[in-house]
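Our preliminary data section would be incomplete without showing what the modeling component actually yields. Below, a chain of 394 amino acids is followed by its predicted structure, encoded as tokens that our downstream tools consume directly.
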Amino acid sequence: MGGPGREFARADRAFFQQNAAMAEINAFPLAPADFAAVNPNTGTAPVFRTLRDAEITRGIYRRLPVLVDHRHKPPRYVWPVRYSTMFHMTNDSGKFRTEADLVKLGAYRVAGGWWEKGSAKWLPLYEGKMVQAYDHRAASIVVNSENLKRPAYSMIATEAYHADPAWSPVPQFWVSANDLLEYKQPWVIGLKHISSTSNVRTVICAICPSAGYGNSLPVIVSQVSKADETDTFAAWAPLLEANLNSFPLDFVVRQKLHGNNLNWFEMEQLPVVPPEAYDCRFGPRTAGDIVREDVLHLTYTAHDMEPFARDQGYQGPPFAWDEEDRLRRRARLDAVFFHLYGPDRDDADYVLSTFPIVKREEEQRYQGRSRSRDLILGHMAALAAGAPDANIAG
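Predicted structure:
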């Protein structure tokens, strides 16, 4: 508006204000370097609610690199990731088959939710509503044809379903294995595309089995081909998945997300923990050891994730679905990532307070206690003391 001659070292800014007087009171300075640090690829503005949010976020970006930095030619990747949307729910609808279609073709259901007829195979088409963090079996899709506006809705999986390692969620559609020839990996990281800063959590992903994936659940795979694999996707994918599901990263996302779609250009600009940081030791164990162990236990709860378990070097049966164990493992993971991201205990406590729905739901479930918060802060202290396997009270 003022032309190229008007330059300022910084500008006072306020977000989420309802009138000019409050904006003036709550404004805080942001310099051009803050834009470049937080959104280096696009230069777009962060949306900090408070000065403390800004300070914590700027500190994280000073310590960690972004996932993909396009300021370098070629782009600089922390991990050799490739992002893909396999099937578009509208454009590719001609490739989808319903259960009734498959029955009419004479196909039959087999383990893992697949259908077969002779050499022909059809795999489930996963959608975002079927997945939650560390859980590729979060919900089935039920179709009510009388509901013209939204006929397909999710039916949340019960603990009884989760307890059965042979149970697979029922999708709305299946796709031919011939349409998946480009995706030969036995498992992928699925990332929910529809999101919001007002949801329980903003970034939600899970390691998922070989299947079809709609555009509401794009996948992250290795950009290195199997024929020339030098990046060991099996070794780093659990680390990246846990990083994306962590509270510190989710906190940063909430300072940047402007809409209800979690786009890849936004994901590329998130600060992530680089490979060498996982060598950090907490007593007798490295951060990488802890993360891989907990991700394995959280993920391998069903037979269809056996390829993932074998790639992790585990030869046993699926782990029993145990809500208490899952709560504690996720808390330890978050504690590890708070250490790797840098916020101290007070800042970690503040970050957790910015997820009010998590707190409210846990207080309703655990008689007024926010157990995740208590366990995370307890594990942070234990890790700092070199006791990664401490049995934290909470």
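The chain has one domain: 81-384. The mean pLDDT is 91. Preliminary results of this kind motivate Aim 1 of the renewal.
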